[in-house]
Amino acid sequence: MKRFQGCLVGLAVGNALGMPVEGWTKEQIRMRYGVLNEMVNGIRPAGTVTDDTMQAICIAESIAEIGHFDADDIMRRLLNWYRTDPFGIGMHTWRVLKLVDAGVDWRDAVERVEQLYAPMTAGNGSLMRCAPIGMRYYREIGALLEYSAESSQLTHLNELCVASCVFFNAVLSRVLQGWGKTEAVSFAVEVTEHVSHEVHERVEHAMVKDADELSTSGFVLDTLECALWAWWHYDDFEMALVAVVNLGGDTDTNGAVTGALIGAHCGVDAIPKRWLNKMTVTQKCIMLATKLFELAQMK
Questions:
Q1: What is the mean pLDDT of the chain?
Q2: Which of these, 28, 90, 154, 190, has the minimum number of CB atoms within 10 Å of its CB?
Q3: Could you give the percent of the chain with pLDDT greater than 70?
Q4: pLDDT tens digits for 151-188?
Q5: What is the rounded distance in angstroms from the CA atom of residue 285 to the CA atom of residue 4?
Q6: What is the CATH number of the domain that holds 47?
Q7: Domain range spanning residue 276?
Q8: How many domains does one find in the chain?
């Protein structure tokens, strides 16, 4: 239970920690804060989450209410969220949801956006929200692989996006069970042997890179690598998140994906209270994580 709560709360906390410095270089962060290790004001008040958390909540709420993955229901919730003029929505997701809002079937909309903008469609917009799938199906690897792919395809058809979601949730499923890091990665490599070889190459390199060698852009493989790197090198929630956010770049999403993984590794009690005190979605995340845990035990 604590790992599940740590995963979803950790996603939100990492997202909020990175929010104020999204798009900054590590040099700019260093000049302004030295080391950013507190929730600070940015475009929005300290502790505000962005589209990463809100889309993950859409998926978690859908599964919690229905009991299983339902692509159409999740799309309905994403569309309702889009209609609120949400803070931080990514351009790719915005393009898809704009078409859906105009009456285009979502399957046609996502194909149209992929055709129009490929190869510039390999952003991290589906990876950042996929953790609830890994939570619900952590004991059902076949369903986990299938629905992780489908959850990406709601907006992101690019092969690298789909493969990254599948791989991440395969790792997450073992972390939620308390597996060691080497065993979790080995398991994920084994069960995702059919996915893009580029994902496996980046995973292998992530474990041996120095921080200065990491790329921190919104490219999906960069975000996957950052999250795996921070989790691999740290066993402390705060240290992992501070490390990855202070690298700069797409800090809110790199923080969110890292937060989900290191939160599952450490559990919710490891998340600093001073950070939680700035958050407004903590209780919602705890409630949803608890429900996903209960559903996962029922299979």
A1: 96
A2: 190
A3: 100
A4: 999 999 999 999 999 999 999 999 999 999 999 999 99
A5: 10
A6: 1.10.4080.10
A7: 2-298
A8: 1
